[in-house]
Amino acid sequence: MREQLPFFVYGTLRPGGRYHDAYLRGRTRSAHPARLAGAVLYDGPGYPYAVEEPGGGGVRGELVTVPVDAYDELLAELDRLEEYVPGDPRSLYLRVEREVGRDADGAAVRAWVYVAAPAVAERLRADGRIVEGGDWRACG
């Protein structure tokens, strides 16, 4: 059995976000404030993109755990939502395993994070608008 990592959500999947109720409400075991270091948050049209940048100010979000029996189904649903297909260069996001710091105790936790795919990241670095403070909620 594959290890079931928590998810780090930082945009429309956060509580109050456009997709939270449809995908996560009632389907999680826990959600805790957290921060992804080494990344910059960009304001994409309608949703954010985390772009990995050494020394980046970080991205604010929640670390979400999911019950074992719902994990595989939710993972597939989130991959579809984020338009992530492993190996497909047209993917908007990549799902990557990263260390995420919990706000409550500073502990580093391995989690799945959807980050901008290389072509999207390149475009954002050239023409995108950075979300100061790395918190998508501050945009809305």
TrEMBL record:
<dbReference type="GO" id="GO:0016740">
    <property type="term" value="F:transferase activity"/>
</dbReference>
<protein>
    <submittedName>
        <fullName>Gamma-glutamylcyclotransferase</fullName>
    </submittedName>
</protein>
<dbReference type="Pfam" id="PF06094">
    <property type="entry name" value="GGACT"/>
</dbReference>
<dbReference type="InterPro" id="IPR009288">
    <property type="entry name" value="AIG2-like_dom"/>
</dbReference>
<dbReference type="InterPro" id="IPR013024">
    <property type="entry name" value="GGCT-like"/>
</dbReference>
<keyword id="KW-0808">Transferase</keyword>
<dbReference type="InterPro" id="IPR036568">
    <property type="entry name" value="GGCT-like_sf"/>
</dbReference>
<feature type="domain" description="Gamma-glutamylcyclotransferase AIG2-like">
    <location>
        <begin position="7"/>
        <end position="137"/>
    </location>
</feature>
